[in-house]
Amino acid sequence: MLNVSxxxxxxxxxxxxxxxxxxxxxxxAQKLPPLxxxxxxxxxxxxxxxxxxxxxxxPDFPVFREGRLLIPRDKLFEWVxxxxxxxxxxxxxxxxx
Length: 97
Hints:
The protein is mostly helical. The protein is built from 6 helices and 2 strands. Strands 1-2 form a two-stranded antiparallel ribbon. The protein starts with 7 loop residues before the first helix and ends with a helix.
């Protein structure tokens, strides 16, 4: 029988590095402005209108509503980074591995 174990913190660190790298690639490739429109946010996150509406309705989602709806680019990426642990905290997926 094969017994496999791994360091969860090391896995998190690798995932975090990959996410940061991917975000930097997106920013560089698209030269994203400091404030994103709803459409730009949807393109960056690769989501549709329904998921965008759901995110924008969340009280913890970074959105600037003065004048028109804009999403601060840096705050959006911080929010994504803070919420990447959702699966670990809310499911038993990692307990089974």
